Amino acid sequence: MKPLALWLVLWLSPIQTFDGAVREWALDAHTPALDVTMRTASHIGTPTVVLGALLAIAVLDPVEGVAVARTALVALVPTNIAVESLKRLTQRTRPDGEHNPANSSFPSSHAANAMALAYVFARRWKKGAPVFWLAATLVAVSRVYLGRHYMSDVVVGTAIGICCGGWAVWLMSRRGRRTDRREGAASPEAAEPASR
Fold this sequence. Notes:
This protein is mainly alpha-helical. About 80% of the residues lie in helices and about 0% in strands. Helix 4 (about 65-90) runs antiparallel to helix 7 and helix 5 (about 110-125) runs antiparallel to helix 6.
């Protein structure tokens, strides 16, 4: 057990040093204008705003919007299962001092959800991809700036979100191809040979 503990200390020490340096930078960077911007960005990542946005997408575009909202939900479920499991496992105290085992600092759910959604939206609306990625990055950075997360929390949350977003897009596109093949085989046009 001692070699494992030593290995963990050696491995985590540079990460903690990095987290501390970024935290100091965030504290020094505070300005009234940035405070408002970062609080607004952080608010965008709340469940109410996210679910409201997905509902709006589905309602405003009943054909493609429903599929995008469905894919986003498929991405968000494993994202939040992974994040909440890790939060309960690690129980890391937040940089602002809050220690709540059910809502610990590691990893950042805001970053994970923002990145999962950015991945899904960027795949659907490719021209808007830079905006989606920029918005997700702003949400993630806001969590460090506001003292709610360490940088390593955000980095791991980002990785979880991108992985789950990618998996959801792959799964739903695969599911769509199978549905298209089944519908094609069942249609009368598919059964009739093309006349020349």
